[in-house]
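Propose amino acids for all 109 sites.
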């Protein structure tokens, strides 16, 4: 009897974690889209080495690379506005990754 109850609790916990991870991933992609808009608006604040921040693919590329790997180095901010935009996006990316990691850890603990 206790085994079935424990299994049921694990299933509910797993569903809750799965729901939260899906919502965090949706938020992750929404944040990528919003920062892509910021990069497009403030493209003059960045040194662009081969990547065109005037194009849709360029701003999406920069936003994904900044969120996922803290930047690649081909696009760098040249003033404080650019540094602020990049810093906020990096902090949000680290925070979302930390939340997902903690939730997975707590489930398997």
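Proposal:
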């Amino acid at each position: 009897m206790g085994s079935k109850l424990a299994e049921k609790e694990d299933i509910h916990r797993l569903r809750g974690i799965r729901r939260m991870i899906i919502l965090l991933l949706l938020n992750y992609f929404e944040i990528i889209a919003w920062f892509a808009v910021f990069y497009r608006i403030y493209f003059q604040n960045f040194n662009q080495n081969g990547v065109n921040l005037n194009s849709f693919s360029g701003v999406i590329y920069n936003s994904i690379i900044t969120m996922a790997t803290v930047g690649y180095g081909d696009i760098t901010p040249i003033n404080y506005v650019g540094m602020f935009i990049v810093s906020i996006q990096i902090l949000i990316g680290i925070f979302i990754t930390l939340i997902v990691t903690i939730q997975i850890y707590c489930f398997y603990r």
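The chain has a mean pLDDT of 82. The chain has one domain: 2-108.
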